[in-house]
Design brief:
Elements (H helix, E strand, L loop, with lengths): L13 E5 L2 E5 L1 H13 L6 E4 L4 H6 L17 H13 L4 E4 L4 H7 L11 H10 E3 L5 E2 L2 E6 L2 H8 L1
């Protein structure tokens, strides 16, 4: 999904009803968005990582952190710890995550060679507490993950 439909006012494409109104999308993008909106409901808690705050807007889901996005070079390990503390305090039901490869990061940010392209502690937390939904739901390359059984987590933590 390119999310190009978000700024497109062109005629054509498939109309998709979203919590913010009707958007138009290419057929593949429309199907992906419809699948995402079938699971993630308005006011659900959702964390989108690392970028793409537009997905909060489209879904009208609530970000449990103060950060619209986390970006290497703009945010430090301090902000990562703050986001993680907020996620721990109010774990969202959903995570949309794009595990960005080093090569892709450098394609997008060619001057970022000195930066670590990941927030490893936060990403490890996601992997420990969430699982990809099946069948797969992806929007703009971001795969939807759902929270593992919170009751089982509480028993495991004891």
């Amino acid at each position: 999904m390119s999310l190009g439909f978000l700024v497109s006012h062109s005629v054509g494409g498939v109309r998709v009803n979203t919590p913010v109104g009707v958007v138009r999308a290419q057929p593949d993008d429309a199907r992906a968005l419809q699948r995402l909106l079938a699971d993630v409901k308005t006011h659900d808690r959702l964390f989108v990582h690392p970028y793409m705050p537009l997905l909060y807007f489209l879904t009208q889901a609530e970000n449990p952190t103060r950060f619209s996005f986390l970006a290497p070079g703009m945010m430090t390990s301090r902000e990562e710890r703050q986001a993680l503390a907020e996620l721990d305090r109010q774990p969202p039901q959903w995570v949309l995550w794009l595990p960005l490869s080093r090569a892709e990061f450098l394609r997008i940010f060619p001057n970022g060679t000195a930066l670590d392209h990941r927030f490893r502690t936060l990403e490890a937390w996601i992997e420990d507490h969430y699982a990809p939904v099946s069948p797969e739901i992806s929007a703009a390359g971001y795969r939807l993950w759902s929270r593992r059984n919170p009751a089982a987590e509480a028993v495991t933590a004891r």
